[in-house]
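From the methods appendix. Each design record in this collection lists the tokenized structure first, followed by the designed amino acid sequence. Records were kept in a plain field format so they could be parsed without special tools. The example shown here is representative of the layout used throughout.

RECORD:
FOLD TOKENS (391 positions):
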């Protein structure tokens, strides 16, 4: 049936995304010094204040040095985003660090030991998804929403006199045909923070060609269907305008609502936390299923119990587009990639400081290695041939 579908994205300067960036900055600091470090870092940001807290574990000889380096790294991350506002400035904001040692009860449940493989860091269910709507095998609405904001950030950072501010949001409504394929845009919404002297006309003139360049040929909407800063004014932005929290943009981080989300957030969590690593594994598997030609669309679900290494369930659904039945696909997945937390980390090389680039513009639909060696390893399609041979 023909229908409309909408997804949104938010920029690196959005208050929640800034918090994701800070949390992943802390995570990468720990992993750079100790690949087996345990980190669960939460961030709160508001007017001229950033607070972090959570649980960490590293060797005693590394812990002090890492903790001493956190504040400067956090301020550097905020400077890189571009915040030098009177009421939120990387150099002048108040920073508070309430990280503490990981619970020994959790450590006992998830660490490996005699006759015991490492268990999952928590119970939970994770989803992965892939489809042929775009060349990166992602749903089109979320993909193009991300791309608009990435281009907007590039334009902003390239111009010392820019009228653009760091905080922005995009939203695209697409038209789908009888076969469920996207055929064009119905509405595009872009709200961006701006200099006080900039007019709505100035902003529209700047962003319209940028949006047209991102969208496929023939998809650009007319002027009446392009809503730019529809409130009329967006000068106060970032954490000065709205408080931010880590993990509050999970749909932006994944599939824009086009596929299920298990509920857990990603940023600030080391890869022993299956909220993150198993969601990456599920995306990796779904993408490789589609890349192998085994389906046009694929959803993978993996579920765990805390302290138990093997998943309690693995589910595959090709939504009627598969070349093999779902049970055969599940068997092939089990054969090709064991899904214990440690095997996921080793297979995807997750115990590295590779997470800061994932904190904005989506964890999925990226190019493996786009932000340096090992980054976005879960976007590789190197398992496709093995899966095809196993079914």
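DESIGN:
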């Amino acid at each position: 049936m023909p229908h409309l579908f909408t997804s949104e994205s938010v920029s690196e300067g959005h208050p929640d995304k800034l918090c994701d960036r800070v949390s992943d900055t802390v995570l990468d600091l720990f992993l750079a010094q100790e690949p087996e470090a345990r980190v669960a870092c939460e961030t709160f940001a508001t007017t001229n204040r950033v607070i972090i807290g959570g649980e960490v574990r590293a060797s005693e000889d590394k812990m002090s040095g890492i903790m001493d380096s956190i504040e400067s790294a956090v301020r550097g991350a905020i400077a890189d985003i571009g915040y030098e506002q009177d009421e939120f400035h990387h150099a002048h904001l108040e920073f508070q660090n309430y990280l503490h040692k990981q619970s020994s009860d959790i450590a006992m449940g998830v660490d490996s030991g005699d006759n015991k493989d490492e268990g999952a860091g928590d119970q939970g269910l994770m989803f992965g998804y892939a489809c042929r709507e775009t060349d990166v095998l992602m749903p089109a609405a979320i993909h193009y929403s991300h791309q608009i904001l990435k281009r907007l950030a590039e334009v902003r950072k390239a111009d010392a006199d820019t009228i653009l501010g760091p905080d922005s949001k995009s939203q695209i409504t697409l038209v789908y045909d009888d076969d469920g394929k996207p055929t064009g845009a119905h509405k595009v919404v872009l709200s961006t923070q701006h200099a006080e002297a900039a007019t709505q006309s100035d902003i529209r003139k700047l962003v319209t060609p940028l949006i047209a360049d991102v969208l496929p040929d023939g998809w650009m909407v007319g002027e009446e269907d392009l809503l730019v800063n529809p409130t009329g004014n967006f000068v106060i932005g970032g954490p000065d305008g709205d408080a931010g929290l880590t993990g509050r943009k999970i749909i932006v981080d994944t599939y824009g609502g086009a596929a299920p989300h298990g509920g857990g957030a990603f940023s600030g969590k080391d890869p022993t936390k299956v909220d993150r690593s198993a969601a990456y594994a599920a995306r990796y598997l779904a993408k490789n299923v589609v890349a192998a030609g085994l389906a046009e669309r694929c959803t993978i679900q993996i579920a765990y119990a805390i302290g138990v290494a093997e998943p309690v369930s693995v589910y595959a659904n090709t939504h009627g587009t598969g070349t093999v039945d779902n049970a055969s696909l599940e068997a092939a997945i089990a054969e090709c990639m064991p899904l214990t937390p440690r095997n996921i980390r080793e297979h995807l090389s997750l115990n590295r400081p590779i997470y800061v680039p994932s904190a904005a513009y989506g964890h999925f639909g990226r190019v493996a290695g786009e932000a340096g060696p090992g980054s976005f390893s879960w976007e590789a399609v190197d398992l496709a041939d093995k899966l095809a041979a196993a079914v």
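APPENDIX NOTE: The two ends are 31 Å apart (CA to CA).
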